[in-house]
Design goal:
This protein has 16 helices and nine strands. With 352 residues, it is an alpha+beta fold. The protein has a five-stranded antiparallel β-sheet with strand order 6-8-9-5-7. Strands 1-2 form a two-stranded antiparallel ribbon.
């Protein structure tokens, strides 16, 4: 899920991540809170009236429609990225069905994906994989009312009230800008919206009107969603044509000393090689890396993440998420090239 879309997460293969899409299950218990009497809510309204030119009566009416959703509080407290190992997380996303549907999605939107890849420098298969992880290619965009989810997390979830209050503010401004009906918009339990699961601040910062119809519609227009993901990654530092991650082998007694908790590359290739890490694929000498471990089905896996791997985590700050995107992108690309080897060539010829 951002001030970026990066702060998005989820629960089971049947639970929609605020950054990785699962279908949210469980009864959504609605409680009509007395938000108007809360000092935090009044301060929120005061801010929007003073700084964003909203009418107080309008805001009181909107917030008065919000329900507290206990299911939202339950889901936000146990995201999949914090509960699962790579072994369990991978099973959710690396399925033959998801790969095949990714190939189909690519076929259906090959022209748009080619245009977006050329414009933003982000590979088509990475964009397809992010949409595949987030919402199963637009099939699972979340069943919570965004107003309910963001109000619940803003006013009834103290650990992250500050962040979600900012997102609720962005949501109300966004709805006004785009002419959207606040009470009807749905998304994930964390307020992430549409096919790419953008948080409201990310929508305002990165959503793109690729179709040229005057609105960046990430709910219903795959073209806009695809371009928005490409723009998001580019603006967050994607380096066109650069590597993402490499499997590695380790040896000796010093390899554990360079393992990083963060996926931000902070060591030179020479440093990790000196500690006992050997990349399986070719890694440029000048590149910086993060030495990463994952608990897979056959034991510990060793990986060297590079800058573009880190950029993927700006969408969702989890190495499990980034690895799922990378591996799904890899397998979808392989299947796509086998299924339609000449399709991009034909598209280029048509456009010239």
């Amino acid at each position: 899920m951002a001030l970026r879309a990066s702060i998005i997460s989820a629960v089971l293969s049947s639970c929609l991540l605020a950054g990785s899409a699962f279908a949210e299950t469980g009864k959504q218990e609605q409680v009509k809170p007395d938000y108007a009497s809360q000092d935090l809510v009044q301060a929120f309204i005061d801010d929007l009236v003073e700084n964003e030119q909203f009418k107080r009566s309008e805001l009181e009416n909107i917030i008065g429609q919000a329900n507290k959703i206990d299911r939202v509080l339950e889901l936000i407290s146990r995201p999949a990225e914090k509960r699962l190992t790579w072994k369990g997380y991978r099973k959710i996303f690396m399925t033959e069905e998801r790969i095949q549907k990714g190939i189909t999605f690519w076929k259906e939107h090959a022209k748009t994906l080619l245009e977006v890849e050329k414009k933003y420098g982000v590979p088509a298969n990475i964009i397809v994989a992010i949409i595949g992880v987030e919402t199963y290619y637009g099939r699972q965009t979340g069943g919570f009312k965004v107003l309910d989810a963001l109000s619940t997390l803003s006013f009834d979830y103290p650990p992250r009230s500050k962040f979600f209050t900012k997102e609720l503010k962005q949501f109300l401004i966004l709805a006004r800008e785009q002419g959207l009906e606040v009470s009807k918009l749905t998304g994930s339990y964390a307020g992430a919206m549409g096919i790419p699961q953008f948080m409201p601040s990310s929508y305002r910062a990165y959503a793109v009107d690729h179709t040229g119809d005057g609105q960046s519609n990430i709910w219903k227009q795959e073209e806009d969603a695809i371009a928005s993901v490409g723009n998001y990654l580019k603006e967050n530092g994607w380096r066109a044509g650069k590597p993402i991650v490499s499997r590695a082998k380790v040896h000796g007694a010093k390899y554990q000393k360079v393992i990083s908790k963060s996926v931000r590359p902070n060591k030179t290739l020479k440093q990790v090689e000196s500690a006992g890490w050997t990349p399986v694929s070719v890694v440029p000498d000048a590149v910086k890396v993060a030495a990463i471990t994952l608990e897979g089905a056959k034991g510990t896996e060793y990986w060297l993440g590079m800058h573009n791997f880190y950029v993927i985590t700006t969408y969702n700050r989890s190495k499990l998420y980034a690895m799922a995107v990378y591996q799904l992108a890899r397998d979808v690309k392989s299947g796509y090239k086998t299924a339609v080897p000449d399709i991009n060539k034909k598209i280029v010829e048509t456009q010239s």
